Q: What sequence folds into this?
């Protein structure tokens, strides 16, 4: 079950590529943050999700939020995925699955794969609390882009 709205968001730091750590904890409580957990780089629905954000990037930056993708893929894979798709925001590697676990965003078993990230979206307000929490029961379900935008616009 996803973290509940109103919960203080867990702080974390993860690599965007080998040797480059991104400290999300330093942003929480200061900026609006969108965290997009996705199962696996290069899968069709995950690619579509990241490309939607890329193709509509002006709308997202206009909302004054920071966007981050998170998957269990290695730092090498998330960096290549981001580069190949020309995604304008960091995609972070939660290879050890600690962050996904703290956000309750891990599948116990997905098609025989243990501990794959769920497709989940969180909006964290400037108060450091979860303003929007959603996770897909079925990994092929796409995020609700309009609902995420609305939550960012409404977040404190």
A:
């Amino acid at each position: 079950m996803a973290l509940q709205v109103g919960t203080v968001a867990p702080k974390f730091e993860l690599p965007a590529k080998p040797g480059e750590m991104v400290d999300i904890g330093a942003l929480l409580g200061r900026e609006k943050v969108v965290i997009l957990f996705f199962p696996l780089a290069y899968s069709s629905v995950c690619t579509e999700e990241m490309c939607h954000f890329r193709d509509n990037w002006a709308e997202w930056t206009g909302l004054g939020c920071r966007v981050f993708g998170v998957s269990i893929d290695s730092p090498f894979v998330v960096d290549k995925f981001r580069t190949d798709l020309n995604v304008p925001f960091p995609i972070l590697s939660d290879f050890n699955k600690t962050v996904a676990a703290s956000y309750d965003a891990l599948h116990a078993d997905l098609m025989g794969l243990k501990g794959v990230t769920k497709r989940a979206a969180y909006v964290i307000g400037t108060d450091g609390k979860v303003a929007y929490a959603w996770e897909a029961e079925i990994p092929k379900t796409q995020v609700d882009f309009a609902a995420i935008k609305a939550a960012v616009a409404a977040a404190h």
Summary: The two ends are 24 Å apart (CA to CA). The first helix runs from residue 44 to 55. The first strand starts at residue 13 and ends at 17.
